[in-house]
Amino acid sequence: MDGLRFTVHVHLGGTLSANQQGAFQLPCGATLTEVSVCGSNANDATLQVGTSGDADGILTAQAIGDSSVPIVWDRGDFNGALVESNQFPALDDDTVVTWVLDFDGASGTAAQNVSILFTFLEG
Q1: Are 59 and 50 a contacting pair, CB within 8 Å?
Q2: What is the pTM of this model?
Q3: Which of 26, 30, 68, 93 has most Cβ atoms within 10 angstroms of its Cβ?
Q4: Which residues have CB under 8 Å from 85's CB, separation 6+?
Q5: Is there a contact between 66 and 42 (Cβ–Cβ < 8 Å)?
Q6: CA dihedral 112, 51, 28, 8 (to 10 degrees)
């Protein structure tokens, strides 16, 4: 893959006490190549990624990284309905990418200082 890579970074500081969610609109057609995420503590948080049309269409809820060691999801890990098996999700210009962080999974330990990094390849 050749082309311009760009990232979108989200940081949620402190100890989370509720679920968090966000969205951003792509400035061009792009391929999602990787999502990297972790909390600064041992935690039970999960992250799902999708679009405004399908909230978990790219990645169904998965446990995030612990103790500042990110977990990285890429082509073989994207498992939502919008992704063809073992492919990178190709997203159109102006697609709204959404994410939902369940701060403590199934009532486990709340995440602290969560960082999420989305990496895209233009086109």
Answers
A1: yes
A2: 0.95
A3: 30
A4: none
A5: yes
A6: 0
